[in-house]
Design a protein that fits this description.
The protein is α/β, with parallel strands linked by helices. It is 20% helix and 32% strand. The protein has two domains: 94 residues, Translation factors (Elongation Factor Tu (Ef-tu), domain 3, Beta Barrel), CATH 2.40.30; 135 residues, 3-Layer(aba) Sandwich (Rossmann fold), CATH 3.40.50.
Length: 250
């Protein structure tokens, strides 16, 4: 009889905020240097825990947006939620030099490494683009230019396109990475982008930009967004087993 395998829980440790980058009016990235650096795979996440003076604790999980090549530190990209317990602290209080408790890396399903190959279709809604950017950065830093990637990114407005200039720079390299935006509350500003929510036809067009059938499709966003994107991919002929989703919110 085989004994069950017990996977030890990731320990909490202290990490120091070394850099804060404003991405949009409601999104910031926080570079953190943990006391014990850890290796991670693109797509994984880390937990952050805050403790109030009265002992009350709140913790949240955030996707790592930095590439695994940067092993001494990692970046969490956090959207401010007005009714949140953790994100307002990061946006309104946290400063470079502050220490927070972190635990990671976590997650083994929504992950990708260059060894897995491609082509890939990445579909992100709002701050759900964070783990997908980790994958794109991993491809760029590892120079895995043989892996074609299309990133389909939905945002409400042009100024809410997180990592916008960085992604534009990658797309301008013409090395197999392509970016398509779906702007839902104002007109598109680039040829080939859309001025509506992601739907089946948009998914089909994005898949057609790849040189062949995708080896995997990664979708990250709110529940309804993931449902629509995954359904669109399946209607376009992608087997359900090739689609991986990561959901947040309700």
């Amino acid at each position: 009889m085989t004994e069950p395998v017990t996977i030890p829980a990731r320990p909490w440790q202290t990490a120091t905020i070394t850099e804060i980058t404003v991405r949009t009016s409601r999104v910031k990235s926080f570079r953190m240097k943990p006391e014990q650096p850890f290796m991670f795979t693109a797509g994984q996440h880390a937990e952050v825990r805050l403790t109030a003076p009265d002992g009350y604790r709140a913790q949240r999980s955030y996707s790592i947006s930095s590439p695994p090549e940067q092993m001494e530190s990692f970046e969490l990209t956090i959207e401010r939620l007005d009714d949140g317990e953790v994100s307002p602290y990061f946006h309104d209080v946290a400063m470079v030099g502050d220490a927070v408790e972190v635990r990671g890396p976590l997650g083994g399903y929504f992950i990708w490494s260059v060894a897995a190959g491609g082509p890939l279709l990445l579909v992100g809604g709002g701050s759900g683009v964070a783990p997908l950017v980790s994958m794109v950065r991993h491809r760029m830093l590892s120079r895995a230019l043989w892996v074609p990637i299309v990133l389909l990114f939905s945002a409400r407005m042009w100024d809410e396109v997180i990592f916008r200039e960085e992604l534009f720079d990658y797309a301008a390299m013409n090395n197999g990475f392509q970016l398509v935006l779906a702007i839902t509350r104002e007109g598109a500003r680039r040829e080939g982008d859309y001025s509506r929510r992601i739907d089946g036809p948009i998914m089909s067009n994005a898949l057609a930009m790849l040189p062949g059938p995708p080896s995997q499709v990664f979708v990250c966003g709110a529940n309804a967004f993931c449902d629509t994107a995954a359904t669109g991919a399946m209607m376009a002929g992608v087997p359900a087993g090739m689609i991986r989703t990561e959901r947040y919110g309700v």
